[in-house]
Amino acid sequence: MYEYGNYSCIRELLEAKEREFLSPYAALSAASRGRDRAEEQDDVRPIYERDRDRIIHCKAFRRMKHKTQVFLAPEGDHYRTRLTHTLEVAQIARTIAKALQLNEDLTEAIALGHDLGHTPFGHSGEAVLNRLCSQGFVHSEQSVRIVEVLEKDGKGLNLSWEVRDGMRNHQTSGHPGTLEGRVVQLSDKIAYLNHDVDDAIRAGLLTEADIPAEYTEVLGHNVHDRLSSLIHNVIYTSIGQPEVGMTLEVESAMRALRQWMFSHVYVGGKAKEEEGKAQQMVELLFHYYMDHPDQLTREYQLLMERGETKERVVCDYISGMTDNYAIVKFEELFVPIGWKF
Q: Is residue 23 part of a domain?
């Protein structure tokens, strides 16, 4: 029989260690605002650790391995996907959270779940659904919808308020309710800016020398140095503080480099030349399923029977597709098959 001192189980012991060790600005597991549906506590894992595990084991998490990050259908195994991006965000966020004595489990759960709602073909697919759906489509809101409604046959994952808040507010315009959510918000930008530069260099779209010196003089002269300088800047600017952020000089340089990447890679680069075809596929799939909702799988038809709008459910179905599955469905529905006799 194991002894836990004054505590009845391992979870209570871990919650006590959080109170002893974590920053006064950290989100404590025992102080969570809880779940929408009350559940019995686990005897081993605090609430945010359970949330982390639920996200890792859900279907939407696994699908991210076949969803575009930036480069559509790249010929090579080393380019980032939505899943590898997510793992890099989680690693950066945990490093920062640990140094700031924030809740690592909450940070990791938010990071692992923040992009669950991304469409096939990255932001270009998201833009199509946002244009076509009268209710709009934003991947951060879709991430929350996945864990609240779509997973587990419509029951959702029943995650804590803090994890869902961080997922919903990870974009630049968001205002996370916890410092852990703010850490993920910054880590997302640090991760994609650096790995997108790395992928663009690998693809031959730019060289290190192409990046303006005014940015590299502040942030570093290679991907490794930039990543390190950004992480260190967040940590040493935020340690012991009630806010998480960067120095003005570093934040300004990061924003400027991000804008430069939009001009040279995200929007105007060669990597985006196939995006028009991908967007046409998404649009044709949307119109097809709006006209033929009976062709949706049963789990999505049940959503409509429960009162969800057809538009929203069609967006659910298409946004859940991987790049490969979207192409397969497009070919199945719109590409003629040779007749044999």
A: no
